[in-house]
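Hey team,

Filing this mostly as a record. A colleague (T.K.) asked me to run one chain through the structure pipeline before their review meeting, and I want the input and output archived in the tracker in case anyone asks later how it was produced. No errors, nothing strange. Just documentation.

Input sequence:
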Amino acid sequence: MPWGSIELNDGTMIPDIAYGTWKLGNGDVTIGRVKQALSVGFTHIDTAQIYRNEKEAGEALRASGLAREDVYITTKYSGRADIDTSIRNSCEYTMWTCTSYTAPDLAVPDIPTLWAKMEQIKANELAKYESSHESIQTLTQSLTYCRSIGVSNFNVQELTTLLTSAKVKPVVNQILFHPYVLRRQAPIVAFGAQHGIVTEAYSVLIPITRQTGGPLDKPLKEIADRLGAQPEQVLLAWAKKKGVVSVTSSTRKERMEGYLKAGDLELTAEDIAAIDTAGLSRH
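Output structure:
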């Protein structure tokens, strides 16, 4: 089954693969890369304040000529400035550079903004973090173009604590997710599914981009050879089977096209088990 969309707990739909702008930098080159991703068929762009390329993502979307309803944008609050001002600027800045993700008048507003992109959430910071959640919830009620909010890098305990006080349930939790961290991260995915919180997975391809030579190499190659695919496509198809939204990236058009074709791969239960087992075997 090709890539599609997943329904969120607020009734909106999120495409289940995204082109991420982390490490792309900024400027005209980044605009070109995002525009290329849109041209090959990506319909979900993941950016963030801390990436410093929200403007470029918006410019690329404007230049693409795509209709507003054809593109879904995720951005993240960095926590580096006053929260109300930061979130408002993030939404307005990105929207201003698009023509209604396409138009400056926001005629068909539907831009999801995920709050608080932080690498680590420490226990003694959680109370302050929840206060931020309250502030963003209030803000999004007045910004009709910011429809959904979520969290990033929350573990089960932090999600549990948040759900006891949040007036608005986060729609997603964006986390590190690939087979080598399955033991640690699978419980987060399962908890999210139990509570209607979709997992967005970043760095799915780490086992073949930065951690080669491990136990995953053999099963990925065997499955890829059998299916006439590439190992990175098999990993993305694995993530799709796990029910997560994959956030991936490349500067090469042929790789982008390959990522999209990964949605057509049909992995068997045995394939999934082999990948899981190999991932769990690495300590």
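Quick notes for T.K.: Residues 5-199 form a domain with the TIM Barrel fold (CATH 3.20.20.100). The beta strands are 5-7, 13-15, 17-20, 44-46, 72-76, 113-114, 151-152, 172-176, 198-202, 245-248.
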